[in-house]
Amino acid sequence: MLVIGNGESRLGININSINQVKVGCNAVYRDYPVNHLICVDRKMVREVVNSDVANIVYTRKDWYNEFSTSPLVQEVPELPYYGTERQDEPFQWGSGPYAVLLASMLADPWDEDIKLIGFDLYSATDRVNNVYKDTQNYNKSEHHSIDPRYWIYQIGKVFENFPHHNYKIYQEHLWQLPEAWIQPNVSLDKISNL
Predict the structure, then answer these.
(1) Which of 17, 45, 128, 160 is the most buried (most CB within 10 A)?
(2) What is the pLDDT of residues 115-146, one digit of tens each?
(3) What Rg value do the Cα atoms of the chain yield, rounded?
(4) Backbone φ, ψ for residue 3 (5° rounding)
(5) Which residues partner with 4 through β-bridges?
């Protein structure tokens, strides 16, 4: 199973050449077909539903009624834990953490690793790190980088709640796992090994 984030580290990867079930985030559908697409931003759901691409789109419970007449739209899965912090609230979860969660619920824990690409978390500059910056429904390239604390925490909670899965993060040289991701079922590999 391949989970596709939209960090710029994935730009050199031919995603079509990877023959696995694919769970993607937001505008990835513009470039690559995926089996499951997570769009928790209402504008992105509208874009996908109004496109000619027939992806299954998962969105927040809060937006579901607006799109429930579309057979393509489903609700994101419920969180596998209960927490009391703001970052534990389902509305605070972004597309990336929900994509990792959905992949964890769909994958067979005995047959496959869950591979993550494009989950850069940090920008190499103080500006936004996203493949789709400067396009419809995305920030301009001059926009400040996004604080990844919630993503790190939430994806770490997925790793923690699915200990029977093995997660492999593919990243560039010198990229380091966040502390919350250092778990027995999580490993880091060079993106060139994908």
Answers:
(1) 45
(2) 999 999 988 889 999 999 999 999 999 999 99
(3) 16
(4) -110, 125
(5) 24, 117
